[in-house]
Amino acid sequence: MAEVRDESLDVLHLLSQLYLRHGRPDSALALLRAVCVLDPDDRRASLTLAHAATRAGQPRESERVVGRLRDEGEPSPVLDLLHGQALAAQGRHGEAELAFEIFVERRLAEQRTSLKGSGR
């Protein structure tokens, strides 16, 4: 039987999104760290944590989160984008450029697969 997700975690995640949208990445980061400790399997919160960490000036934390997510499952364009942003924020521009190129390639591959599946 699937566990019922605690609604308070959803509220914390929503509040973190609002903080991010209104220029308060440090506040968002603090909330997301808590959500990820309380529910380490929440991929959505982990993705948002990686984004917030870069925005809050903590790109190494973002890079660690992206690495953990990659280790737990298949790579995705979103992870490539977050990785590229974290690398760029650290001034590692050559590596960031490569991550962004991989992002574009994977994203285009996903779109082509989606179009084939829809019969277009």
From TrEMBL:
According to its UniProt record, what is one Pfam family this protein matches? TPR_19
Q: Spell out the molecular function terms from Gene Ontology.
A: peptidase activity
InterPro entries, sorted: TPR-like_helical_dom_sf
Which UniProt key words apply to this protein? Hydrolase, Protease
Q: Which GO biological process entries does UniProt record here?
A: proteolysis
Keyword Endoplasmic reticulum listed? The answer is: no
This chain belongs to the protein called Zn-dependent protease
Q: Which species does the entry assign this protein to? A: Variovorax soli
